[in-house]
């Protein structure tokens, strides 16, 4: 089922003379995990601003084409109602925390209070997300004293408690260490399992290859390629555009250049291992 449809969408921010988004045509289906990648200034964050209604409700500028959220034009959505449908997780966990609450518990409750959620339901939702994100030991702590990884978990908890159908997440791991980064991907994967639609901007393409259902490549304000991770990372034209690829996909492209191709362009470590084992004469890539 369609969640967000973009038809011939172009957009210029106010006081600029270039299009940050150019002739975008794409449909985000409900319940899928979308990874958005591409070089700097390609338009990834602008696409996020568009799909969560910040364009045109906050950024006025010059928008043309159709942006349909659950079939209704974004211009006709009430922006408060839209924020209950589409949650947003920032790049920087330090700006996601309100800074005005003394405990993690109060921090998670803040968004729910703003939604006017009744007290018993609020408590139930908080207990559920605290367990889900394994942050029971943090609830009495001051959010301002947490590490980056802990803050990002609390940020996720606050958003998950709101129970949005769609989550737009912009580079959530850019300030995290590798362990917290894999935790974040596991949380996002779990949200997908719960039926949420995930739209994630991320430079860590190895993880995008592993987890996404669909990958969109943005460059110069346009979607220059889209498809399954396998389809996108097999496209050698993307190498010319300075699009980051998983290391094992680069290995696959190198093997093609050397005229010693693998059976396919490998995009995950396990696929590369299987192909290398096969090359070494191990039956079916095993043992
Ligand atoms: N608020 C704004 N006002 C004016 N121009 C903007 C604004 N935000 C982004 N832009 C411009 O729009 C273009 C696309 O930027 P955007 O942030 O969407 O790209 P990005 O792919 O997310 O980049 P990065 O990977 O560097 O975060 C850039 O040229 C940028 O300078």
Automatic annotation (TrEMBL):
Source organism: Gottfriedia endophytica
InterPro entries according to UniProt: AAA+_ATPase (IPR003593), ABC_transporter-like_ATP-bd (IPR003439), ABC_transporter-like_CS (IPR017871), ABC_transpr_CbiO/EcfA_su (IPR015856), ECF_ABC_transporter_ATP-bd (IPR050095), P-loop_NTPase (IPR027417)
UniProt protein name: ABC transporter ATP-binding protein
Compartment(s) where it occurs, according to its Swiss-Prot or TrEMBL record: Cell membrane
Membrane topology, as annotated: Peripheral membrane protein
Lineage top rank: taxon: Bacteria
ABC transporter domain residues: 4-245
Pfam families xrefs: ABC_tran
PROSITE patterns attached to this UniProt entry: ABC_TRANSPORTER_1, ABC_TRANSPORTER_2
Major location (coarse): membrane
Protein family: Belongs to the ABC transporter superfamily.
Single GO cellular component term: ATP-binding cassette (ABC) transporter complex
Keyword annotations from UniProtKB, A to Z: ATP-binding, Cell membrane, Membrane, Nucleotide-binding, Translocase, Transport
CDD domains per the UniProt record, alphabetical: ABC_cobalt_CbiO_domain1 (cd03225)
Any GO molecular function: ATP hydrolysis activity
Gene3D superfamilies linked: P-loop containing nucleotide triphosphate hydrolases (3.40.50.300)
